[in-house]
Structure formats: structure tokens, C-alpha cells
Design a protein that fits this description.
Elements: E1 2-14, E2 29-33, H1 39-50, H2 55-58, H3 65-77, E3 87-91, E4 100-109, E5 115-122, H4 131-145, E6 150-156, H5 160-168, E7 172-183
Parallel strand pairs: 5-6
Antiparallel strand pairs: 1-6, 1-7, 2-3, 3-4, 4-5
Length: 186
């Protein structure tokens, strides 16, 4: 076993006076606001979004279904959990057809009163449709409605697509942090 350090960026956005424009969802997609009955769907979507991504190395719980379920319970149990900044996207290709949860985001108010974006994830087969943009805009809108003026998130430096998304929506890099992770060497 040894330590590996992952470079991450803390990115921030000033929400004061910012007008957020929600991109349209493609046909068959729908946003679902937080409801306790959707906790399992959030956990499952989180798992399918992150299990094969670099963030599953940085945060091993994201590569494990039980870990995602535990993490979702922890987020839901935080004192600053914000239902209005927590969203799920479902894909239903036809009315009454099968449902597929394909995007998730959670938001909390941290100890300093800032909005903290938690685990924005879109399942691989649904990427490239602006679902991540929709989720992030809905979470930021939820922060604004809760009176939060500034929000942040952390992103692994190698995740170029996510960084471009965050910058496009107005986030800027505030600082670089390093996450130490124990890894097994073969």
C-alpha cells in the first residue's frame, strides 16, 4: 500500500445578482426535485455515474454501490442539506415506459453559509446532452432561493469536461488542493 495524491481544484461562483438560465432538456428527460423516497435512486445513479471514473479512485465509496448508498445517507443527514439544491434526472422514452435515472446532484449549506455542490454525476450513456448543465443550474438556483450568495465545488484536475462545464457556467478556480488516497501497488 502507498499514498497517491490527486490534484483537485476548488472552484467557486458568486451568485449575487446572477441570472441562471436553465438549458432545455431533450425529449424524454425530466427533472425530479428531492423527495426522501428518491434516496435509493440518487445512490444508484451516483454509482453508475462514477464507478468507472477517476473520482472512484479519489473517493473509493463512489466505485461501490453500498458506498454510494452510505454517502447519500450521510449527505441527506447533514444539518445543512438543501432539498431545493438536490435534483435527479429521469429518462422515460415513452409515457408509461421504463424509467432510467441518469443524473444526480446534491447541495448543502456548509458551516460558513456557502453552497457546496456534492457529486454532480451523469451516467455515461446519457452524457453530451447538457444534463450536467441542467442539474448544476437547478442546484445553483436552489442555493439562491435559500439566500446563499456564493457556492463552491471540488473537481479532479484531470476531469477536463467537468472543468469546462463549471467554467462555462461561471465558476472560477479558487485554489488547488491535493487529496491523499491509499492505493495498492501491484
Amino acid at each position: 500500500m502507498g499514498l497517491t495524491y490527486f490534484k483537485r481544484y476548488r472552484m467557486e461562483i458568486d451568485l449575487t445578482g446572477r441570472r441562471l438560465l436553465l438549458p432545455g432538456l431533450p425529449p424524454g428527460y425530466r427533472l425530479l426535485s428531492w423527495d426522501d423516497s428518491l434516496l435509493e435512486a440518487h445512490a444508484e445513479t451516483k454509482y453508475h455515474s462514477f464507478r468507472s471514473e477517476i473520482d472512484a479512485n479519489v473517493f473509493p465509496c463512489l466505485g461501490d454501490w453500498a458506498g454510494c448508498h452510505r454517502l447519500m445517507n450521510e449527505i441527506r443527514g447533514k444539518q445543512g442539506f438543501l432539498p431545493g439544491a438536490t435534483w435527479l434526472i429521469v429518462f422515460e422514452p415513452c409515457v408509461g415506459g421504463s424509467r432510467e435515472y441518469c443524473g444526480t446532484i446534491q447541495g448543502i449549506r456548509d458551516y460558513a453559509g456557502l453552497g457546496a455542490v456534492q457529486n454532480l454525476g451523469v451516467t455515461p450513456e446519457h452524457r453530451g446532452r447538457q444534463l450536467g448543465s441542467c442539474l448544476l443550474v437547478k442546484a445553483l438556483d436552489g442555493f439562491q432561493k435559500a439566500g446563499i450568495r456564493r457556492a463552491f465545488l471540488e473537481v479532479t484536475a484531470q476531469n477536463d469536461g467537468a472543468i469546462r462545464l463549471y467554467q462555462r457556467l461561471g465558476f472560477t478556480k479558487a485554489r488547488t488542493v491535493y487529496k491523499a488516497v491509499e492505493v495498492a501497488y501491484s
